[in-house]
Amino acid sequence: MALELKEYGADRFSIAPMIDVTTSAFRRFTRIMTKRSMLYTEMIAAEALVHGKLNLIAHDNNELPCVLQLGGSDPQKLAIAAKIGEDCGYSAINLNAGCPSDKVQSGSFGAILMKTPDVIASCVEKMQSAVKIPVTIKTRIGVDDLDSFDYTVKIVKTIYDSGCRHIVLHARKAWLNGLSPKENRSIPPLDYDRVYAMKEMFPDLFITINGGILTIDDCLLHLKKVEGVMLGRAIIDNPYLLSSVDRDIFEDGSEVKSRENVLNEFADLCEKFLSEGHRFHHMAMHGLNLFNGCHGARRFRQYMSAHMHQENADASLLLKAYQKMQGA
Ligand SMILES: Cc1cc2nc3c(=O)[nH]c(=O)nc-3n(C[C@H](O)[C@H](O)[C@H](O)COP(=O)(O)O)c2cc1C
Question: What CATH class does 2-246 carry?
Fold first, then answer.
């Protein structure tokens, strides 16, 4: 069983794809703390790539390994977009079949695809024939009234039969009518046992579990049952959690950096980012929660939020915010 493997790929711990969060800037920030984890892009519409909007997937090699997540339901367009992603150097291509936003539903992709597992399978097959890198799926355990155990099996089996060998399963269903995307991330109850059961039924399927995982200890418990964990909001709220991932999840013997060291490296990264012609706050915003849980964290965040949009803002702001945090 894959669970007994001594060498783990980056998929053992991944940072969830999150629109407006997991940008290239965010991914560069996270790499200060974890070299081993698998990173994801935000969901990128396949259609946009087919129309040549390659700026949407620009990235720095330092971000690798990184998965390009695509949204779409047209197998042909997804295949073209997947090939573009492969040619740009991404490590794998993931199809979003779990996102419940209205925008995504009107384009007939995301969570609505769970109602038609055959369409997911056709998309996977076409994408797999276009690329050599892995094609993976991110989905949920059900949608609307299609939420029985048997329906989860149907989704997973259809995907498995298409040849896909890695599924990210968000351990709750999506309610497409009546709940906002935000509510859909907290109101439908989590059912981790359902995900573990899929692992038992499909032993050679790499399963990444997602949803409501908050700590490294939680991750280690899930990793006794499935091969991969994926965290989203916990990392927005407490990015410093990433600093112990390489040591505690990948067991690579690396040392955990102090928050102060992370801050110094982040300041260097912000300088570099500015010198590349970007706006300071597009990078700085990702570090606002770096000190969460520490005394004075609110002062750090407030000082940054108040000043980081200013025209002349630069990395020295981080050090000033740090001094404010310490009461200076
Ligand atoms: C701000 C935000 C944006 C998100 N955007 C995406 C997305 O682009 N693609 C996707 O598959 N899921 C998206 N999600 C869902 C997350 O990937 C993840 O499945 C969900 O937040 C549950 O994991 P968590 O409890 O660890 O946050 C988003 C979540 C958040 C909070």
Answer: alpha beta
